[in-house]
Amino acid sequence: MITPAGGFPHRGSLAAFRHRGFTLFWIGALISSTGTWLGNLTVPYVLYQQTDSAVWVGLAAAAQFGPAFVLAPLGGCLADTVDRRVLLMWTQAGLGLVAVAMWIQWSVGAHEPALLLVLVTVFGVLNGLNNPAWQSLVNDLVPREDVLSAVTLNSLQFNLARAVGPAVAGVLLATLGASWAFLLNAVSFVVVVVTLAFVRQHRSRVRTSTGRGFFVQWRDAVRYMAGSSPMLLAIGLCCLVGLLGNPVFNLTVVFAETVYDTDAIGLGVLTAALGVGAVLFALAGLLRRGGPLSFARRIILAITALGLALVAMGAAPGYGLGVLAAVGVGAAFLASFAALNSVIQLLAPDGLRGRVLAVRHMVFSATIALGVLLGGVLTDVWGVRLTTALLGAALLLAVTVMILVPVLVPGAAGAAVLDRAGDDPAQDPRERNSTR
Fold it and tell me: CATH assignment of 15-425?
């Protein structure tokens, strides 16, 4: 389905909720993501409290996302060859056990940064196997015409969790301590495992196993991606957003401690503001009326807004304005990521989707790990304000280059090539053959 403007297929932003499997999955994912954000804020908070170094915060983020670079290929093959729902039940159960281990470590008083880093690394290993199947299952639960709705609503639940989780974590850290935050994170994984037991894929998404070896499967995926300029550009832009736009999510603890001199509750509010911005953007999308924007225009506007919001957050003179800037960062980050993820979901043929999303997750995770390490090092040298503003300025420069120098995309007319995502890959004989 192609919109008149060459943009998103559109049947209404809430259309995915008409499918029982997706609705159950969404509810379980919301609870699980909220718990995960308790851990995502608690880990950097306790590490910074113990070490007083942004580098340790960056190491924790690198340990969480770095293993995906190695294991995402295996996760992608598993997502394309086994039952994605069953795979997710096992990986989510494993992630829950790691969360239990974090809770035990902290509750018995073994407050060693290195030990916590090891557990975060194990979490990252399991997440590398989990993520391709998770992203692919979202697509499996709805028919093609509702993919954009499913992707948007999945982003909405993640960012609702991003808004609620850090706020709850801030209260828990200020009152009951880190052990309770780790415990509630562990409990949340039970919910999603139970939910997955009742989820079934949409009848139009039934898949059959390829029955072929690991390297043959990846040869097919690499051939497809190498011949698709829109896919290469979309994945490249995901990397750019991860490298330059994501570090601020890990640096809120440094803003709270060194710039605003606030307590754990203030940190929770600042971090939650990033999620609130994302939720406001998602709700605005649900309520928006009028013709759709093209993929290219939507992505350029979103990345530009993200760069400006990061510059504003770095320049904000006080806590209140910093929170407002964080709302803008959250909204623009979701706008960028949701648009790019929708492009990739729509471009990828069904038989290759797990592997394509594995590549996206692999390189995105690698750039996130590199970005938070870079942000941590620059913050220790130049301070968090200047670092955040420079990351935003770099994003603005990258968008300018993308607009003015389209020849950087081989065989493509700049970002406008992304508008091909409205086409159904099943109608393209070259892509149809690549899944055989």
Answer: 1.20.1250.20
